[in-house]
Specification:
The protein is mostly beta strands. 0% of the residues lie in helices and 49% in strands. It is built from no helices and ten strands. The strands form two sheets. It has a six-stranded mixed beta sheet with strand order 2-10-9-4-5-6, with no helix packed on it. The chain has a four-stranded antiparallel beta sheet with strand order 1-3-8-7, with no helix packed on it. Strand 7 and strand 8 form a beta hairpin.
Length: 123
Amino acid sequence: QVQLVESGGGLVQAGGSLRLSCAASGGTFASSVLGWFRQAPGQEREFVAAISWIGGSTHYGDSVKGRFTISRDNAKKTMYLQMSSLEPEDTAMYYCAQVGGGGSYTKPLFDSWGQGTQVTVSS
């Protein structure tokens, strides 16, 4: 099985930056697509960004395009989400997961989630 662990969240003021990490272990994922999702209190889980592990192709949700950058380090088996120009609306619990459910980069492949990492943006 592939285990994904998020880290790097924290409290930051509006306009600031933060980098999230997603460390993979315990399985194979090189042929998969990994992505970030977020969920704010009382709201549905939202797609943030995804990246193909082999080709590095990326896809972003409209709400973060131009502000967030997704990347991966093959040697470290880690995916990153560089978050810039943060807004209070970005406040949420952030999760990483394999994506491709229903053939879409915006949907998780499995309905299995870890603890996530909390991002709080103050103004």
